[in-house]
Write a structure and sequence with these properties.
Elements (H helix, E strand, L loop, with lengths): L2 E5 L8 H13 L3 E6 L1 H4 L11 E5 L12 H4 L4 H10 L5 E4 L3 H12 L9 E6 L7 E4 L9 H17 L8 E4 L10 H10 L5 E5 L11 E3 L2 H27 L2 H9 L1 H11 L6 E5 L4 E5 L5 H16 L2 H10 L4
């Protein structure tokens, strides 16, 4: 049975939504949840019928968002340190945290370790598209400064995730640039293009407006660009939602139209809601780490756990190693 270590103390809203998300996940999937945190505070929140599916690991310390990521290595009694350590010791198959993302990434990379051949692990995130099927974007923050060989590895890791975890047959990888022509881009993207062009999964260079189209399944960029892309997209989605609400409220006719379009608005909200995907996997480590949003609600936590289960049941890490072994870097 898959075992998921869950950092119960890390979220912005305390342990309640994390526990609620865990319970929702247990209602729908069979797995063993290992809750890491202050047991005396956690246990009373769990219905007795679910206790047989849960183990507890005591942790009296919590790493706050204001703390440095490097503090996590010194404070070995924090919930995130202990949760990651469970994966390192093979007592859990995956770790899920909606706490300090920098600490989770650093601990997972250095304590669980990188896969053979991986130069740098990457954070991948799912972004919505009109078809309803998401596009995978990496890196979105783990590596601010990248070389071409790093982006090439991101392409291999992203393709494996799209195929093994998302179930996409023959996924296509696009290299984010400022033009579709191979002559466009900076020196890093040009060098990356030359190294990727002979891979069957490589579509070519794409522009920003292609990310949300049906052109590719995986988008590769460095962590600096990727993080700005992610935060900008979240801001645009939130702004559009507010603009629609404000416009509707100013007109009785618009209100009537909105009532008729409720299903459409509900579908739109679902597509742009980060809670639908749960979290971002850290690709390239000897295990599974899902990094969730600090403001995650119970739905996001549930879906982050589901993502960890699918990841752990897949062959992705072996496929990543195989793919990297064929590269000449």
């Amino acid at each position: 049975m898959i075992k998921i270590a869950i950092d119960v103390m890390g979220g912005d809203f305390g342990s309640k939504p994390i526990i609620e998300g865990t319970i929702k996940a247990l209602k729908e999937r069979e797995f063993k949840a290992i809750l890491v945190g202050k047991t005396e505070n956690i246990k009373p929140l769990i219905p007795s019928r679910y206790l047989k599916h849960i183990d507890f690991v005591e942790s009296s310390d919590v790493l706050q968002m204001s703390d440095s990521a490097t503090d996590a290595f010194k404070r070995k009694n924090t919930s995130i340190y202990k949760a990651v350590d469970l994966v390192r010791q093979k007592e859990a198959d995956a770790v899920v945290s909606v706490g300090h993302s920098g600490a989770t990434m650093s601990l997972a990379t250095l304590k669980i370790g990188r896969l053979q051949g991986v130069l740098r692990p990457a954070i991948a995130t799912l972004m919505p598209r009109p078809s309803g099927g998401p596009v995978l974007v990496l890196d979105v923050g783990a590596n601010v400064d990248c070389k071409a060989e790093h982006l090439v590895q991101f392409a291999i890791m992203g393709e494996a995730y799209a195929r093994d975890v998302l179930g996409v047959q023959n996924p296509k990888v696009g290299l984010l640039s400022n033009g579709e022509e191979k002559s466009k881009g900076n020196e890093i993207t040009k060098n990356t293009y030359e190294q990727l062009k002979n891979l069957d999964c490589f579509y070519g260079s794409i522009e920003g407006n292609d990310i949300f189209s049906e052109v590719v399944n995986v988008v590769v960029c460095d962590g600096f660009v990727g993080n700005i892309l992610l935060k900008t997209s979240e801001g645009v989605a939130e702004s559009i939602t507010k603009i629609i609400k404000n416009s509707i409220g100013k007109s009785p006719l618009a209100i009537a139209g909105a009532l008729l379009m409720r299903r459409v608005f509900k579908s739109l909200k679902k597509q742009v809601d980060y809670a639908e995907y749960g979290g971002a996997p850290l690709l390239g480590i000897k295990g599974c780490a899902i990094i969730g949003h600090g403001k995650s609600n119970s739905k996001a936590v549930k879906n982050a756990i589901f993502q960890a289960i699918v990841f752990s049941n897949s062959n992705i890490n072996e496929d990543i190693k195989t793919g990297l072994s064929k590269l000449e870097i």
